[in-house]
Amino acid sequence: MNDNNAWRFVKKRTAADGAVYVSADGTRYRRTGGADLQAEAAFQRQVADLDYPVPHVLEEGFTDDGHYYVVEESLGDQTLHDRAVASLNGSRALPDDVTDTAAQVAARLLRAQAAHLAQPTPTPSALRQWLDRAGFTQNVFQENPDLDNTRTRAALEHALDRLATVPLVYGHLDYGLPNVLPAGVIDWQHHGLVPFGYDVLPALEVIAFKGGSKGYTASPGQRRRYLAALDDAARNTTGQPVSQHLGVYLLVKSLFFLALMRPTDPARTDKHLKWQYRRHLFMKGLEQYERTGMVDTALFPGLEEFAAGYRAGDHP
Ligand SMILES: Nc1ncnc2c1ncn2[C@@H]1O[C@H](COP(=O)(O)OP(=O)(O)O)[C@@H](O)[C@H]1O
Ligand SMILES: [Mg+2]
What is the pTM of this model? Predict the structure, then answer.
């Protein structure tokens, strides 16, 4: 490749060492990193062959100073998150074209996953491994020992039982609008086995866990339409809908969003509040799941609303 083009720094990688760069003409992205990035590139090559909507890996190698890098094609200049933020004009409503595009990309990924099941019937240990990875259960229980109780454990066992016959597929594990473009899905650093539907079903629901900081929110109608599109895609490939698993997946997401939240410095009252907020969302999710088997993220308070109640002493 001609390496005399300049790479523009984009950002440090969120959950790993290394950084992301874009080529001067915007057609390629370059990531630097270590063994994790190498595994990510290998995974991306593998699923590209399975018709997953992922960027093609164009080049990989080591820099003169021994750092691993990988170059992939650009899938476009705006993620769906970027597009949503750019189109906000005073309202918090997501534009329909964003949620409809999200549904199309999600359906493509779901169809590719259905066509290449990793475990048609999951082994109990692989399913449990997914739960522990996706929900960061070890960290959550370590930081919140009071939540490591028979009640939580019973709900999680129930959730695993419900997934006993759901196939495991090669998944993304950090799926959401910031990693989705109309041409496909980027940023596969967390790749691993997931139950069918885990990646794509919660994509519009997880916005609520941010407490309003994303600036936008999906309406109940948009979320219904999104799930209906995924049910169609699933029926066409597996003969069965998939949205019945959303409750289980949101229970796991409520653990995920509680992970790594406990501040080490008690003086950081802002961080303390966010931690308490996520604890609140977990408890709300758990209660709903126990009662109905579902979690309705529309019933979650925003962070501001929660904070007002918290400051007023509306807590134990
Ligand atoms: N192949 C790609 N096509 C288009 N945009 C990309 C691509 N790779 C990265 N980007 C852009 O770079 C940003 C950071 O890359 P990403 O791998 O998602 O990093 P992080 O792990 O920090 O989330 C993305 O949000 C997106 O805007
Ligand atoms: Mg990303």
Answer: 0.95
The full set of domains in the chain, from first to last, is: 7-73 (3.30.200.20), 80-311 (3.90.1200.10)
Give the integer Cα–Cα distance in Å for 228 and 242. 9
Q: Note the pLDDT tens digit of each residue in 87-109.
A: 998 889 999 999 999 999 999 99
Ligand 1 atom nearest the C-alpha of 10 is 12
User: Using a 6 Å cutoff on CB, does residue 11 contact ligand 1?
Assistant: yes
Q: Is 55 in the pocket of ligand 1 (CB under 6 A)?
A: yes
Q: Which amino acid is at 51?
A: D
Is residue 129 scored above 80 in pLDDT?
yes
Find the 14 Cα to ligand 2 centroid distance in Å.
Answer: 7
> Which of 123, 182, 166 lies closest to 252 in space, CA to CA?
166
Provide the 8-state DSSP code for 167. P
Whether the CB-CB separation of 144 and 254 falls below 8 Å is answered with no
Ligand 1 atom at minimal distance to the Cα of residue 82: 27
The number of the ligand nearest the C-alpha atom of 8 reads 1
CA–CA dist 271, 274 (Å, integer): 5
Between helix 150-162 and helix 269-292 the angle, nearest 10°, is: 60
Task: Look at ligand 1, atom 8, and give the residue with the nearest C-alpha.
Answer: 29
On whether the CB atoms of residues 74 and 22 are closer than 8 A, the answer is yes
